[in-house]
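quick one
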Amino acid sequence: MQIGCHVSISGSIDKAVDNAMMIDCSAFQIFTRSPRSWHVKDLSDNDVKSFKQKLDDSKIDRFATVAHMPYLPNLATPNHDVYSKSVNTLMKEVERCGKLGIPFLVTHLGSHLGTGEENGIKRLVKGLEKAAEVKNDVMILLENTAGQKNSVGSDFDQLASIFSQLKPTKRFGICFDTCHTFSAGYDLRTDNAVKDTMEKFDEVVSLEHLKILHLNDSKGTLGSNIDRHYHIGLGGIGEKGLSAVIKFMNKKKIPMILETPIDDIRGDFENVKKAKELA
Ligand code: ZN
Ligand code: MN
Ligand code: MN
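structure w/ manganese (II) ion:
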Protein backbone atom coordinates (compact mmCIF):
# COMPACT_ATOMS: atom_id res chain seq x y z
CA MET A 1 0.00 0.00 0.00
CA GLN A 2 1.35 3.40 -0.97
CA ILE A 3 -0.24 6.05 1.20
CA GLY A 4 0.73 9.36 2.74
CA CYS A 5 -0.15 13.01 2.79
CA HIS A 6 0.79 16.45 1.63
CA VAL A 7 3.93 17.42 3.57
CA SER A 8 5.69 20.71 4.18
CA ILE A 9 9.02 21.69 2.59
CA SER A 10 9.53 24.44 5.14
CA GLY A 11 13.24 24.99 5.83
CA SER A 12 14.49 23.12 2.76
CA ILE A 13 12.90 20.84 0.22
CA ASP A 14 14.60 17.66 1.52
CA LYS A 15 12.69 18.15 4.81
CA ALA A 16 9.65 16.86 2.95
CA VAL A 17 11.12 13.35 3.06
CA ASP A 18 11.79 13.64 6.83
CA ASN A 19 8.26 14.92 7.39
CA ALA A 20 6.78 12.05 5.39
CA MET A 21 8.85 9.43 7.23
CA MET A 22 7.92 10.90 10.60
CA ILE A 23 4.25 10.09 10.06
CA ASP A 24 4.84 6.70 8.42
CA CYS A 25 4.02 7.73 4.86
CA SER A 26 4.87 5.50 1.90
CA ALA A 27 3.80 8.24 -0.53
CA PHE A 28 3.76 12.04 -0.31
CA GLN A 29 2.90 15.26 -2.07
CA ILE A 30 4.66 18.64 -1.91
CA PHE A 31 4.55 22.12 -3.27
CA THR A 32 8.05 22.63 -4.70
CA ARG A 33 7.88 26.31 -3.59
CA SER A 34 5.49 28.65 -1.82
CA PRO A 35 1.98 27.98 -3.18
CA ARG A 36 0.74 31.52 -2.50
CA SER A 37 3.20 33.49 -4.61
CA TRP A 38 4.08 33.97 -8.28
CA HIS A 39 7.68 34.36 -7.30
CA VAL A 40 9.86 31.27 -7.41
CA LYS A 41 13.45 30.86 -6.36
CA ASP A 42 15.48 28.41 -8.46
CA LEU A 43 16.38 25.08 -6.88
CA SER A 44 20.06 24.92 -6.07
CA ASP A 45 22.13 21.85 -6.97
CA ASN A 46 22.40 21.22 -3.27
CA ASP A 47 18.61 21.27 -2.77
CA VAL A 48 18.19 18.76 -5.56
CA LYS A 49 21.00 16.54 -4.36
CA SER A 50 19.84 16.30 -0.76
CA PHE A 51 16.20 15.74 -1.72
CA LYS A 52 17.17 12.86 -4.00
CA GLN A 53 19.61 11.45 -1.48
CA LYS A 54 17.03 11.40 1.32
CA LEU A 55 14.43 9.88 -0.94
CA ASP A 56 16.88 7.16 -2.02
CA ASP A 57 17.70 6.42 1.61
CA SER A 58 14.03 6.22 2.55
CA LYS A 59 11.69 3.32 1.81
CA ILE A 60 9.50 5.62 -0.27
CA ASP A 61 9.25 4.76 -3.95
CA ARG A 62 9.96 7.72 -6.25
CA PHE A 63 6.82 6.82 -8.21
CA ALA A 64 4.74 7.48 -5.10
CA THR A 65 5.89 11.11 -4.91
CA VAL A 66 4.00 13.96 -6.50
CA ALA A 67 4.11 17.75 -6.66
CA HIS A 68 1.06 20.03 -6.69
CA MET A 69 0.89 23.27 -8.64
CA PRO A 70 0.73 26.49 -6.59
CA TYR A 71 -2.66 28.16 -6.00
CA LEU A 72 -2.45 31.33 -8.09
CA PRO A 73 -2.20 30.01 -11.67
CA ASN A 74 -5.42 29.74 -13.66
CA LEU A 75 -4.97 27.96 -16.98
CA ALA A 76 -8.49 28.75 -18.19
CA THR A 77 -8.45 32.48 -17.42
CA PRO A 78 -9.38 35.11 -20.05
CA ASN A 79 -6.89 37.56 -18.50
CA HIS A 80 -3.79 37.59 -20.75
CA ASP A 81 -1.35 38.58 -18.06
CA VAL A 82 -2.55 35.95 -15.59
CA TYR A 83 -2.72 33.35 -18.37
CA SER A 84 0.86 33.81 -19.49
CA LYS A 85 2.11 33.80 -15.91
CA SER A 86 0.08 30.62 -15.31
CA VAL A 87 1.54 28.79 -18.31
CA ASN A 88 5.05 29.92 -17.35
CA THR A 89 4.52 28.64 -13.81
CA LEU A 90 3.32 25.28 -15.12
CA MET A 91 6.38 24.96 -17.38
CA LYS A 92 8.64 25.91 -14.51
CA GLU A 93 7.03 23.32 -12.22
CA VAL A 94 7.44 20.61 -14.86
CA GLU A 95 11.14 21.51 -15.01
CA ARG A 96 11.49 21.51 -11.23
CA CYS A 97 9.82 18.10 -10.91
CA GLY A 98 12.17 16.77 -13.57
CA LYS A 99 15.21 17.98 -11.62
CA LEU A 100 13.89 16.52 -8.36
CA GLY A 101 12.98 13.17 -9.94
CA ILE A 102 9.30 13.63 -9.07
CA PRO A 103 7.34 11.86 -11.83
CA PHE A 104 3.94 13.55 -11.37
CA LEU A 105 2.69 17.15 -11.23
CA VAL A 106 -0.96 17.74 -10.26
CA THR A 107 -2.72 20.76 -11.70
CA HIS A 108 -6.19 22.21 -11.37
CA LEU A 109 -8.00 22.94 -14.60
CA GLY A 110 -8.87 26.50 -13.75
CA SER A 111 -11.84 28.81 -14.00
CA HIS A 112 -13.15 30.41 -17.17
CA LEU A 113 -14.44 33.32 -15.05
CA GLY A 114 -17.73 33.54 -16.91
CA THR A 115 -16.33 33.47 -20.45
CA GLY A 116 -17.82 30.03 -21.11
CA GLU A 117 -16.54 26.47 -20.85
CA GLU A 118 -15.56 26.17 -24.49
CA ASN A 119 -13.24 29.19 -24.42
CA GLY A 120 -11.82 28.22 -21.04
CA ILE A 121 -11.05 24.70 -22.22
CA LYS A 122 -9.34 25.99 -25.38
CA ARG A 123 -6.96 28.09 -23.28
CA LEU A 124 -6.43 25.25 -20.83
CA VAL A 125 -5.54 22.72 -23.54
CA LYS A 126 -3.14 25.15 -25.20
CA GLY A 127 -1.40 25.89 -21.89
CA LEU A 128 -1.09 22.22 -20.95
CA GLU A 129 0.39 21.32 -24.33
CA LYS A 130 2.88 24.16 -24.07
CA ALA A 131 4.07 22.75 -20.74
CA ALA A 132 4.43 19.30 -22.30
CA GLU A 133 7.07 20.81 -24.60
CA VAL A 134 9.43 20.89 -21.62
CA LYS A 135 11.80 18.06 -22.38
CA ASN A 136 11.64 15.56 -19.54
CA ASP A 137 9.33 12.69 -18.62
CA VAL A 138 7.25 14.41 -15.94
CA MET A 139 3.58 13.59 -16.32
CA ILE A 140 1.04 16.39 -15.79
CA LEU A 141 -1.99 15.10 -13.89
CA LEU A 142 -5.34 16.80 -14.35
CA GLU A 143 -7.28 16.91 -11.09
CA ASN A 144 -11.06 16.59 -11.25
CA THR A 145 -12.83 19.48 -9.50
CA ALA A 146 -15.79 19.80 -7.15
CA GLY A 147 -17.76 21.81 -9.71
CA GLN A 148 -17.59 25.28 -8.17
CA LYS A 149 -18.99 28.13 -10.28
CA ASN A 150 -17.09 28.60 -13.59
CA SER A 151 -14.66 25.78 -12.81
CA VAL A 152 -13.64 23.37 -15.52
CA GLY A 153 -13.40 19.56 -15.20
CA SER A 154 -15.79 18.32 -12.51
CA ASP A 155 -17.86 16.23 -14.89
CA PHE A 156 -16.22 12.94 -16.03
CA ASP A 157 -17.40 13.51 -19.61
CA GLN A 158 -15.84 16.95 -19.72
CA LEU A 159 -12.64 15.70 -18.10
CA ALA A 160 -12.45 12.97 -20.75
CA SER A 161 -13.07 15.43 -23.56
CA ILE A 162 -10.26 17.69 -22.29
CA PHE A 163 -7.94 14.73 -21.80
CA SER A 164 -8.56 13.39 -25.29
CA GLN A 165 -7.41 16.70 -26.81
CA LEU A 166 -4.00 16.57 -25.14
CA LYS A 167 -0.92 15.49 -27.06
CA PRO A 168 1.36 13.68 -26.47
CA THR A 169 -0.86 11.41 -24.36
CA LYS A 170 2.06 9.91 -22.43
CA ARG A 171 2.76 13.30 -20.81
CA PHE A 172 -0.72 13.48 -19.23
CA GLY A 173 -2.66 11.57 -16.61
CA ILE A 174 -5.44 12.01 -14.05
CA CYS A 175 -5.43 12.75 -10.33
CA PHE A 176 -8.76 11.63 -8.85
CA ASP A 177 -9.85 13.54 -5.73
CA THR A 178 -12.52 11.68 -3.74
CA CYS A 179 -13.83 14.86 -2.05
CA HIS A 180 -14.16 16.66 -5.39
CA THR A 181 -15.78 13.61 -7.03
CA PHE A 182 -18.37 13.31 -4.26
CA SER A 183 -19.11 17.06 -4.19
CA ALA A 184 -19.47 16.98 -7.96
CA GLY A 185 -22.32 14.50 -7.55
CA TYR A 186 -20.75 11.03 -7.92
CA ASP A 187 -21.67 8.85 -4.95
CA LEU A 188 -18.89 7.06 -3.04
CA ARG A 189 -20.69 6.16 0.20
CA THR A 190 -21.13 2.38 -0.23
CA ASP A 191 -19.39 -0.56 -1.91
CA ASN A 192 -21.91 -0.43 -4.73
CA ALA A 193 -21.69 3.33 -5.16
CA VAL A 194 -17.88 3.14 -5.38
CA LYS A 195 -18.16 0.31 -7.90
CA ASP A 196 -20.63 2.29 -10.03
CA THR A 197 -18.66 5.54 -9.86
CA MET A 198 -15.36 3.86 -10.73
CA GLU A 199 -17.02 1.95 -13.57
CA LYS A 200 -18.40 5.20 -14.91
CA PHE A 201 -14.97 6.82 -14.61
CA ASP A 202 -13.34 3.88 -16.38
CA GLU A 203 -15.89 3.96 -19.20
CA VAL A 204 -15.54 7.67 -19.82
CA VAL A 205 -11.98 8.63 -18.84
CA SER A 206 -10.30 5.20 -18.46
CA LEU A 207 -8.59 3.90 -15.34
CA GLU A 208 -5.31 3.44 -17.20
CA HIS A 209 -4.79 7.22 -17.01
CA LEU A 210 -5.39 7.36 -13.24
CA LYS A 211 -1.97 7.83 -11.60
CA ILE A 212 -2.64 9.39 -8.19
CA LEU A 213 -5.59 9.39 -5.79
CA HIS A 214 -6.31 12.33 -3.50
CA LEU A 215 -7.97 10.58 -0.57
CA ASN A 216 -10.14 13.10 1.26
CA ASP A 217 -13.49 12.91 2.97
CA SER A 218 -15.89 15.74 2.16
CA LYS A 219 -17.35 18.40 4.43
CA GLY A 220 -19.99 19.07 1.78
CA THR A 221 -22.80 16.68 0.85
CA LEU A 222 -23.26 14.71 -2.39
CA GLY A 223 -23.57 17.12 -5.32
CA SER A 224 -23.01 20.21 -3.16
CA ASN A 225 -20.13 21.44 -5.38
CA ILE A 226 -18.33 22.50 -2.22
CA ASP A 227 -14.55 21.94 -2.12
CA ARG A 228 -13.96 21.34 1.57
CA HIS A 229 -11.87 18.39 2.60
CA TYR A 230 -12.56 16.55 5.83
CA HIS A 231 -11.06 13.91 8.11
CA ILE A 232 -11.07 10.34 6.78
CA GLY A 233 -14.41 8.70 7.58
CA LEU A 234 -15.89 11.70 9.40
CA GLY A 235 -17.37 13.53 6.42
CA GLY A 236 -20.10 13.04 3.85
CA ILE A 237 -18.42 10.00 2.25
CA GLY A 238 -17.80 8.16 5.51
CA GLU A 239 -15.78 5.10 6.53
CA LYS A 240 -17.65 2.51 4.51
CA GLY A 241 -17.24 4.38 1.24
CA LEU A 242 -13.62 5.37 1.78
CA SER A 243 -12.76 1.82 2.80
CA ALA A 244 -14.14 0.60 -0.55
CA VAL A 245 -12.17 3.31 -2.38
CA ILE A 246 -8.93 2.40 -0.60
CA LYS A 247 -9.34 -1.32 -1.34
CA PHE A 248 -10.08 -0.57 -4.98
CA MET A 249 -7.03 1.71 -5.38
CA ASN A 250 -4.79 -0.76 -3.54
CA LYS A 251 -5.71 -3.46 -6.01
CA LYS A 252 -4.79 -1.09 -8.85
CA LYS A 253 -1.57 -0.04 -7.02
CA ILE A 254 -2.50 3.65 -7.16
CA PRO A 255 -0.61 5.82 -4.60
CA MET A 256 -2.98 7.65 -2.24
CA ILE A 257 -2.36 11.15 -0.90
CA LEU A 258 -4.38 12.72 1.92
CA GLU A 259 -5.09 16.45 1.90
CA THR A 260 -7.09 16.45 5.10
CA PRO A 261 -7.34 19.24 7.69
CA ILE A 262 -5.16 19.50 10.77
CA ASP A 263 -7.20 20.56 13.80
CA ASP A 264 -8.27 19.50 17.31
CA ILE A 265 -10.01 16.42 15.94
CA ARG A 266 -7.03 14.88 14.12
CA GLY A 267 -3.69 15.61 12.50
CA ASP A 268 -2.02 13.97 9.48
CA PHE A 269 -0.62 11.02 11.42
CA GLU A 270 -4.08 10.08 12.72
CA ASN A 271 -5.73 10.43 9.32
CA VAL A 272 -3.07 8.34 7.56
CA LYS A 273 -3.40 5.74 10.33
CA LYS A 274 -7.19 5.72 9.94
CA ALA A 275 -6.87 5.22 6.18
CA LYS A 276 -4.51 2.28 6.74
CA GLU A 277 -7.04 0.72 9.12
CA LEU A 278 -9.76 1.05 6.49
CA ALA A 279 -7.67 -0.94 4.00
ZN1 ZN B 1 -5.58 20.03 -5.87
MN1 MN C 1 -6.88 17.35 -4.34
MN1 MN D 1 -9.87 20.47 -2.93
